[in-house]
Amino acid sequence: MTTANPAPPKGPLSPPDQALVARTIESRLSPGLVLRELQPLPGDASNRRYFRAVLAGGPPHSVILMQLAEPEGFKQSEEAVSGAMHQITELPFLNVLAHLGKAGVSVPTLHYYDHAAGLLYLEDFGDLTLAEAVRDADAPGLEARYRQAINILVQMQVKASSPADPGCLAFHRSFDVPLLMWEFDHFLEYGIVARQGKPMCSDDWTAIRGEFEKISEHLAGQPRVFTHRDYHSRNLMVDGLRLGVIDFQDALMGPATYDLASLLRDAYIALDEPLVDRLVNYYLDLLAEHRHVWTNREAFRRLFDLTSIQRNMKAAGRFVYIDRVKGNPKFLADIPRVLGYVKRNLQHYPELAVLRKHLTPYVPELQ
User: Per the confidence metrics, is the pTM higher than 0.70?
Assistant: First the structure.
């Protein structure tokens, strides 16, 4: 079963009650902590808002407040989901947080969850994302950071995938053909039709969807592992020597290449091709150390590139959706980068000639 997007938020959230936050910190967190200041943080594309509570009497010297849009809003994902019907009785963020914590992944510690107020008090990883940390890094520093991100990815795929945990929501939803096709259709609806302001030719639409179905069936037929779903440079926080993982609430089971493609074909950081080649091989070497061996690396690379096409098209469509439906245009500038990846992969594989032929006239970045 696949669910579509939830309705956009009705309006901006009111900031949390500062007196309530102060009382909660004094009564529910470590003894001696006092709220000094509550600072709003830049938002992402979600319906949540974030604040930093600066504290006296620490450590900790600060905590992050995640403010939910509505108390029961967590029962519907902000992303489309697919899989067996499963009753959601727990905040997905907390459900997946606990699972990843047991797998040894560096996720924020939960200090307290005020269910009535819709406020989570979380460990503060700081403001430095991987994207910002590597922007001015030299080549060795850049590669070292990305190797660290791949170390965490492999740990997540190995330790969080097996044994299966029926209590974790991720094991009840998956990247099956309907969900992969929903994301492809999201690109057609927003990345093409909404973007150009007119419908596509029906013959092109039919041909393109036929090619999308072939890719979706191939990806859905791969062995599934725990998949973060948004594993990229803005969801990895550099906290000293540590790399913290956030924004994992939409996790599901999917092909091993999905999170790797999210990381290495990132909407926000363009890595040069020799580095991508080395990092893909580094990932495969690490998996082999855990006895997960891909004997045909050429086949894996093709799967990685097909996954990148799907992931990058979805991202481009999503960025237009966020602009048109949520009124947030800040991601539009990243569309040329992700569609540039698509162009490269479409040109690289002769078997994608039909898709390239019918798609290119509608997408300036592919021309």
Answer: yes
